[in-house]
Design a protein that fits this description.
The chain has 240 residues and is of the alpha/beta class. It is built from eight helices and twelve strands. A five-stranded parallel sheet has the order 2-1-3-4-5, with helices on both faces.
């Protein structure tokens, strides 16, 4: 899909920054929609269904966190926060509410465009995969697709967006071995096919967070030299 088919909503009240981002996006083939308040951002989101939201938090009518909440009530559309707030707590709060990325001001144009491309790949995967509604359960693990959350023994597993996408993709094909190449293509797109190293790094983090260890119930099995397999619902897994 070419860039000019992507609509990006920019919610930013500083006129010079907003104009700069709008120009940057449009000169790189994207369609930019602009709002300078939270309320206008919600309205434009509802009427134009953008592929990505770039959001400032310090808006004149409401905190930008309220827009994250409003979007997440109805959509998985990627949200990239662009803010002067630099504390770890600010970032944690935005990400926990459902933001997919967080960039602090000032920012580099090259980095911003790279993050835009990454966010749009995320949206393409979420839209194209046709993940089912409801939940997936295997042993004491549950995936809630609407909330994009994973739970083990009733406790939420704090996954990054990429880690969640890997888990969700494997659950969609539970019981089947998915090759490294197939997973990489689904998560990162055609340009990263064959790049298994970052898949392996993400998978190591996933298995650590989900409590995978020798002698325990493993939810994702490693088929050495081939790929990974999510256990079926109500299927016992063997330690691996």
């Amino acid at each position: 899909m070419s860039n000019n088919k992507y609509k990006i909503l920019v919610v930013e009240d500083e006129a010079n920054i907003c104009s700069f981002i709008e120009t940057l996006l449009e000169t790189n083939g994207y369609q930019a929609l602009v709002a300078n308040t939270c309320a206008m951002g919600v309205t434009l989101f509802s009427s134009h269904t953008p592929d990505l939201v770039i959001l400032d938090l310090g808006l004149p009518d409401q905190d930008g966190l309220e827009l994250i909440k409003a979007v997440r009530q109805r959509s998985r559309t990627p949200i990239m926060v662009l803010s002067a707030r630099t504390t770890e707590q600010d970032k944690i709060e935005a990400l926990d509410l459902g933001a997919n990325d967080y960039i602090t001001k000032p920012f580099g144009t090259g980095e911003m465009l790279a993050r835009v491309r990454a966010a749009l790949r995320l949206n393409r995967y979420s839209s194209a995969s046709g993940l089912p509604s409801g939940t997936f359960t295997a042993q004491d693990m549950t995936i809630n697709y609407e909330r994009r959350k994973v739970f083990v023994a009733g406790q939420e597993v704090k996954l990054t967006q990429t880690e969640y996408n890997i888990v969700a993709f494997l659950s969609e094909h539970a019981g089947r071995v998915m090759t490294y190449a197939a997973i990489v293509k689904a998560i990162w797109g055609d340009t990263d096919v064959g790049s298994t190293k970052k898949l392996q790094v993400n998978m190591a983090n996933i298995r650590k967070k989900m409590g995978s260890r020798p002698g325990s119930n493993n939810y994702i099995l490693n088929e050495l030299g081939v790929g990974y397999r999510m256990i079926d619902e109500d299927t016992d897994a063997q330690p691996n």
